[in-house]
Structure formats: structure tokens, C-alpha cells
Amino acid sequence: MLTPDAALERLDFLLSLAAKAGADAADAVYFGESSLGIGVRLGQLEDIGRSEGEEIGLRLFLGARSAQVSVSDLSKAALAEAVERAVAMAREATEDKFAGLAPAELLTSGPFADFDLFDPAAELLSPEQLKLMALEAEDTARAVKGISNSEGGSASAGTSVSALATSAGFRGAARGTSVSTSAVVIAGEGADKQRDYDWHQARHLSDLESPALVGRRAAERTLARLNPAKAPTGQMPVIFDKRVSASLIGHLLGAITGSSIARKTSFVLGHEKEPLFGPGITIRDDPHRHRGLRSRAFDAEGLATAPRAIVDKGMLTGWLVDSASGRQLGLPPTGHGSRGSSGPPGVSTSNLWLEPGSSSPEQLMSDIKDGLYINELIGMGVNLLTGDYSRGAGGFRIRNGQLAEPVTEATIAGHLRDMFKALIPANDLEFRHATDAPTIRVDGLTVAGQ
Positions of the region Disordered (predicted)? Predict the structure, then answer.
């Protein structure tokens, strides 16, 4: 894997080849990653995996025609061949008047903040250290009374390097680490077996939850699922545990990207000037969070990133736009560009969260006579064109304001606009993933038992 400086040098060389081959404009990205993972089961080493990979992607333009190629061979000869292939492809491509690099006047420049994303201690974790972490997670879970079997514990650590260079003059690179632990265990016997898990990931080893805590939580969640009943049927309040509540925010993001709006395939289109949520709801995106899992100083087009409220006091603040969709919509790009090595930029958020409310989860459910508490969602029955929502779910019955018996094989259904307006967040927000939300209550959902 190349260092950030070496990656930029390789991209500069590739762009020089593209210019010599007649490209009017071009950009290139580098992605390199190395990781080490250990898996254990029933106290014994089950697997160990080490992976290293790197890839360069080139996008070049001949007028309004463009092509993308990617290569994992980074030798000069392979890069020269990639340029030849991209030029030949571009000559045969259909013209696209909206495609192109980000406007040069909008490009940011270094030096760039790194937001403390790299941890030498995480990079230097040995196989033996990771094995001990995985064993501690699984052993702790298996020691809890009622746990009958295990699907294993795991621990992993990795380092990544990414870089972007464009013919318009942008150059930027970033490096980061990640470390994680998990445990998956089983309780019960025969047809009554249940399984559940816990997992945690962080940039720095010092921020990672202890393997013992991960294992204990996996065991507790598994035991709580024993002896499930059938889910109720009817219209009722539903509480989304914070393990799954962030998925509702994810559905919003899919509907407010510039490409969805340009194609007119979003259920939000035509309603963007109306209150989308209640007046107390704010959703924030912060690419500058210290040690954030998706923190970044610049986006995949070389534009500066900045903290932003995606929803402010219930109102959508605008679309998330890359340069191509921005040209279609007549809007400037918003610094949310994201891409891989083999395609043009799209859009993604960074560290996203729904701001917490003032009530505890217990207070949110205190007046629910009969309802459902969801901590598992199954399937992807969400239509972002119409806003129709229908997913399989599991969790617990709510009776007289208290959690009751576990339930399985439920289906919950509604419409996302109605769900957003009815959404009430609890006060238990935790920053654990790239997208986070507290426990959420949504009234009026239709629940169908199996």
C-alpha cells in the first residue's frame, strides 16, 4: 500500500499520461487498504485473514464524452495501458453535457486537517493481540448463564489510504485506521434457539469498547429473545430501538440526492418546501468530527466539506448535489461527492445523526397501552419513489407502557412522509456508527403478525 505522498505522485503521473493522450480533462483516485482479522469459536482459533489491496481509477473527458477505467496493477506500463483503454472507450461514448469535473473555482486546497483518523496503536495490533480480544468477547458472552452455543467472536484492525488528483489542480490524500470487535452467541435448545450479536468499531484503539462489554451485551440480547410470541396485528405505536432507528434517516438520504431529484424518482420531490418532520427535529451531517468514522476534509470531487444541518427544525435545507446532478438542476455542488475507483462521483453524507429529544426511551413508551418495540429489521421493502414503507421486524411487545414478551415475524408498514412527521426521538443518542439516531417513536404504523 502506498503512502499518501506516493499515491499522489502516482496519480500525477497518470494524469500526465492522460493529457499526453489528448484528454481535455481528467481525475484519478487511489484506494489502498490492509487489514487483519481473527475469528474464534468455542475458545479456539477458527480463522485468520490478512488482506492487502490497492486500486487506481481514472476518469477522462474528450469534450462531452467520458470513460472510466480502474486497475490494480500500478506499474507505469499498466497505467499507460489504462489510459489508452480509457481514451478508446471515451471516443465511442455518448455525449453527456452534464458530466465533467467540479468547477475549478470551487476546488479546495491544502494543507488539510486529518481529524485524528490515524492511530499507530491500531495499525500495530498483532494477530495474538487480536486473538485475545476476540476470545475475551466470546468468553464473556459464553459465561453468561443461559448461553448454549456460540457462532464466534472476532477482532480486526485495518489501515486505509485514499487520494484524489484532478487536471484542474486539486491534490489531496488521507490516511486512517479502524479497529473492531464482535460476538455472536446462541441461547435455548432445539426449535427454541435464538441468536443475537454485538459489535463495535472505532478509529482509535483507545475509543473501542472493551471486548468484555461487547460479549456481555451480545449475551443479554440473545437471552432476551427467548420464547418469542407472535406479533400483534393492527395500527399501533412503534418504538425503534437505536440499533435500527438510523435506517429511517438513511431512507431520507436516498430521496434527497441530486440524481434522484434530477430523475424525478423521489417521494420528497414537490414537498420540499413543506415541513418534512416535526418542528423539534434536526438532522446534522458533520464531516469534521474528531475521529469520526467518515470524517473528511474534501469530497470525491475536490470540494471542501463543511458541517451542515440536513434538516433544520423540521424543514429540509436542500438537496445533496454532486457536480453532474448540480448542472442538471442548476445548483452548485454541496461537497457531498463520493466515489469508488470504477465509476463517476455520486453523493453520500459523512458522520450523520438525528439530534436527541428530551424524553428517555422509558418515557416515550410510558403511555403506550399496546404497541411494538423493534430492535431488528428484515428486508428492504422501501420504495423511495412513492415513500411506501414495509419491512419485516422483530422485537418486543409493549403492554401498559412496559416491555413485555419478545415477538418475531412481524411486518410494519406506513408511508415515510407520515412516519417522518410523527417521529419523536428519545434522549439516548450515542455516536457508534457513520449514521446514528436515538430511540425513536412513530405512532400510527400498521403491524401485521404472521
Answer: 327-361
Judge if 203 and 270 occupy the same domain. no
Q: What is the share, in percent, of the chain residues with pLDDT greater than 90?
A: 95
Q: Which residues make Cβ contacts (< 8 Å) with residue 371, sequence separation at least 6?
A: 236, 237, 238, 239, 365, 397, 398
Helix 4-20 vs helix 76-92: angle between axes, to the nearest 10 degrees?
A: 50
Q: Which domain holds residue 208?
A: 4-224
Count of domains for the chain: 2
Could you tell me the end-to-end alpha-carbon distance of the chain, in angstroms, rounded to an integer? 51
Q: What cell was used for 339?
A: 466515489
Tell me, yes or no, whether 213 and 357 share the same domain: no
Rounded to 5 degrees, what are φ and ψ at 434?
Answer: -70, -30
Q: Please name the amino acid found at residue 376.
A: E
Give me the CATH number covering residue 187: 3.30.2290.10
Return the DSSP state at 266.
-
Yes or no: say if 298 and 336 are a contact pair by the CB < 8 Å rule. no
Q: Contact at 8 Å (CB) between 46 and 39? A: yes
pLDDT single digits (tens) 315-325: 999 999 999 99
Is 425:248 a contact under the CB 8 Å cutoff?
A: no
Q: With contact defined as beta carbons under 8 Å apart, do 31 and 55 qualify?
A: yes
CB 228 within 8 A of CB 196: no
User: By three-state DSSP, how is residue 109 classified?
Assistant: coil
Domain C-terminal end among 181, 204, 224: 224
Residue 418 backbone phi and psi in degrees, to 5:
-65, -40
Query: What tens digit of pLDDT does each residue of 330-361 get?
Result: 999 999 999 998 889 999 999 999 999 999 99
298 shares its domain with 359 = yes
DSSP string spanning 323-339? HHHHHHHT----S-EE-
Mean pLDDT on 39-56: 96
The one-character DSSP state at 392 is E
Rounded-to-integer distance, Cα 115 and Cα 209, Å:
20
- Looking at 156, 190, 224, the residue that finishes a domain is 224
Q: Whole-structure pTM over 0.90, yes or no?
A: yes
Half-sphere exposure (Cβ direction) of 95: Cα atoms closer than 13 Å: 3
29 and 164 in contact (C-beta within 8 Å)? yes
Helices (H), 100-126: 120-123
